[in-house]
Amino acid sequence: MNRICQYAAGTLLVFGLIGGTAQASANEPVHQTESNLPAGQLYSKLKENETFTFHSFQHQGVLYVKSHDKTNAVFRINGKIMKVKLNKNKNHWKKIDLSSYTVNGVNSLSFTDHDKRNHKLEISIPYPTLEHASPKKAGFSQEKLKKIDSMINEEVQKGFPGAALIVVKDGQIVKNTAYGYKKKYDGLSLMENPEKMTKDTMFDLASNTKMYAANFAIQHLVSRGKLDLNAKVQDYIPDFKDQPGDVIKGKDTLRITDILHHTAGFPADPQYHNPSVSKDLFSQDRSKTLGMIIKTPLTYTPGTKNIYSDVDYMLLGFIVEKITGEKLDAYVENRFYKPLGLYDTMFNPLRKGKDPSDMAATELVGNTRDGVIDFPNVRKYTLQGEVHDEKAFYSMDGVSGHAGLFSTTNDLAVLLQVMLNGGGYGSHYLFSSSTIQEFTKASELNATYGLGWRRNGDKSMEWMFGPYASSEAYGHTGWTGTVTIIDPKYNLGIVLLTNKKHSPLVDPKKDPNTFAGDLFNTGKYGSVVTAVYEAMEK
Is 116 left (phi over 0), alpha (psi -120 to 50) or beta? Predict the structure, then answer.
């Protein structure tokens, strides 16, 4: 029998499943399961000649084994024989190094019971965790990687504010570099002593929040059977319904999957924070904003087109809160980020002990676009550590499914590795690989959309993915200057974080949304992503 499973090992303190993350007592490895093991099962007994497959990378991997009645065992790892002497203590797990046997991708493991007594072994295999490796070991050209440094540094010299880049391949960190400045302007004036960018600088992720907060939460809830993608929004928010005066109907039948696909009918940006635009939908109070979303008229018949809308993910964030009974930031920070050791990934970082100097600054004069935009309570100071997005800051108190998350390249490398690993990292299981496949497959309406994730579905996405990414690649961008690329074909992950909006507008009166930083190649993403692919030698 062949059962596709994924396990994880760890030494945590409490035996049980807590929020989908398995934890165990000291000396007990944590067993993470896929959908075809019983829900809540923490470990498995491996029978004679029963084959398990697990995800790993070449020269990595650990197996934990416990036997109640055997002192020796013979395993086959990818067809190679491995003899193991087990611990005599029945309650002790034996840790076995698999690094000489593993390959990139799917690996197989079976147990041969030569004395025919129908023995069973308890086994556990951890998800891969990131390791540091030289570019050469990971199959990259050091010289070509240095060309990326030269390209970005040259643009910094010409006025681009700053960036941080991390590249992971085959479970290895290949490159982690910071460029330029986290803050070089105070208002519209250049600083005499600008703050240098570092590898641990926290960035406003903007719409990458949609993936690493809202989507991670939804994928987790789907894996646990707590959220049905085909359920109606009404099932979670009963007041969400068509009104007699609505010109375009569809709210009564709108499904979660429609929102994730950005085919829900919502406008792209109703600007709830700005009464001159939002009119009767104005809200600068989080408790009021859900009501305004419910009242927001649809602008097209759901399911007929893709219109990328922040409203979709504002609503999804509220749905997560309805299901979990927790505010979105508390849920994702306590269930995902902190257990993974990601203490620089959070909403509202200045309220949680971080200093402005920990952050990359964004807009120079608040949300005024160099002084040409005004609305009640508009910020007029250089933003550093407060979410830039107006709806997230004013209408959602900094916590929303569409924007508000801050993070570093180091932390995001772990989160994207969760996706490459098939849903877990080390001793932590977040969601199933089948859920990942469901969320990253192409929409029938538009191949560049998955469930939230953007896909390299056709040539129109080359600006983001470059010409060399595989058709399996997916990711997301953020308005402040952030991009994630995840390419399962190459076991490759790229995170480029920039603060390109920390620059003057080109012409604020004619175009209040184009900043000087937008015009540089680094701020357009594709050139950097392309250079990473070009640096791969295998």
Answer: left
